[in-house]
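Think of the structure tokens as a kind of shorthand, similar to the way a musician reads notation: each symbol stands for something richer, in this case the local conformation of the backbone. In the example below we present two proteins back to back. Begin with the first one, reading the sequence and then the tokens, and try to describe in your own words what changes along the chain.
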Amino acid sequence: MKRFNTHSLRPRSAALCLAIMAIPLAACVTRGTHDTVVGDLEERNSKLESRVRDLERSNRSLSDERAELLDSMEDLRQEREDLSVDVAKLQKTKDLLSAHLREREEEVHELSKLKSTYQGLVDELEQEVTAGQIQIEQLSEGVRVNLSQEILFRSGAVQLEPHGVEVLRKVAGQLSGTSHVIEVQGHTDDVPLSVNLAQRWGTNWELAGARAASVVRLLQEEQVHPDRLTAVSFGEFAPVSSNDSAEGRARNRRIEIRLKPVEDPAMIQVPAAGAPEAEVAPGS
């Protein structure tokens, strides 16, 4: 029988045993490390998930705040627009009130001037007013000066008498300071013109118009601007009294000077210095 050398087998067996014993030890270290790594990863993942949830909550909160801010901005924008509209309305109201105030101030100024003109006429023509030859009346929008024919014209004439010229010069001195339109009205009674006068004037229309034009021309000569002057004939058709009596007919034969407000101030144009003034034709 063949013998084995037991001494040569012993080292090999020991090495083999050591190798076999090392296998489970190596496996044990690997699983522990794996568990540790897995545990770390799970913990990190849990923290990341928690962080993500926190960020998501923060994002939702920021989104809500952003939405609220946008709503607030929209509300502020709408309020700003509303305020702009209110400011525009208030500015318009202010402008209207300012315009009305200027108009009232101008009216007060004009009324003050008108009152001054009225008082000046009364003072200048006190003698004629006392004698009943002239009537002066302050109206709501102007002044009416009623001049009897007897102090201005001879019967059937259109040339002003000297006393009439003197009276009208006093009137012109007061009218030159006003800004009103000056309407000179010619009036007659209802008695038809004589044959001689009819041959010259035709009817009371033309006679009254020629007398009004004579007054207008004198006022122009006394520096009342012609753009403010108008000559009008009413003939016999605007009586202030009955024509059935001599006294009534005398009151109807008159020249009325009316101060009226200017409807369109642009129509009143003062010519440049040195420019010729327009002539006023009789009957215009």
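Once you have a description of the first chain, move to the second and do the same.
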Amino acid sequence: MPAFFITGMIDDMLVKYVSTFMLVALLSTSVLAQPGGQRAAPGVVVSEATIESFPLSAEALGNARANEAVDIRPEITAAVTEILFEEGQTVGEGDILLRLENSEPLADLAAARAALVDSESQLRRSRELFKNRVVSESELEQLEARRDADQAAVNAAQSRLNHTTIRAPFAGQLGLRRVSLGSVVSPLTVITTLDDTSSIKLDFDVPEVFISRLSIGLNVNARSAAWPDLVFRGTVISIDTRVDPISRTITVRALLPNEEVRLRPGMFLTVSLLKEDVRSLVVPEQAIVPERSKQYVFVVDGENLVARREVTTGRRRPGEIEVLDGLAPGDLVIIEGTQKARPGQPVQIIEQR
């Protein structure tokens, strides 16, 4: 290889090395002498805090729940005399599902009604006699109290009789039947289940940093392993009032239409929260200086003086971080040279990115 070619290569490498060394020295040095014996301000690279599009996108895992769900149980202990539903049947509100033995409640109701008729008859006669001062006012009040007690006894007997007929509290789909004719059931016995699955409630947890962006009506997309090719779309209907102190998450509830009954209570779904029209104050990630549990940035003002500010950070994406509090649009933050910056001291801005 010719000697002059080798010499040229060496010269080029030397120029590149010297240039790189000078840039690094300019960023890191803080002891360059200035006229008058003063120390030169350290060189820094800054970036401007700007408002940018920062779409809200969060992934979570959720559990499906019926819009309304209940275990059908009797309120009294009695034998089953009639079953009027089929497993999996769709029923309306108030439909009769089952009847229990009611001979004793019927007898109690008849006796209570007879006592009420007698007390009302005596009260009517006493009121006529009271006009002629044959019956005292105190006797009349006693008869009125007795009539009221007999009316209460009738109401109680009627309520016990009503408990022998079990009805659907709301419209929905019944589950499996768990009793047979002749079974003696009690308030602890589950006869069947009833679920309103016309829509599905989906509960999922998201990190607390999303709280400021969460709102009722936020769009939700959900997927199930049972229907891998389908996306179930819904909206946020409720946000819990408390943050879990251990996981630092908050529970969000969404409502998904389920007209085709593809989703069932208890299913496991993956959830995506989407909100495209979100704009946030953003700075480069390297501007953040963590200290214990707090986050700080170094800001350069119009006179090239440094100030340290505590900031509240939010979501992150590669190379950038959202600032919720502590900065304003247009603030210049130091992204290179923070180790040499001191609050209240001047710096030299070498580059603004």
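Compare your description with these statements about the second chain. The helical segments are 3-28, 103-131, 137-162.
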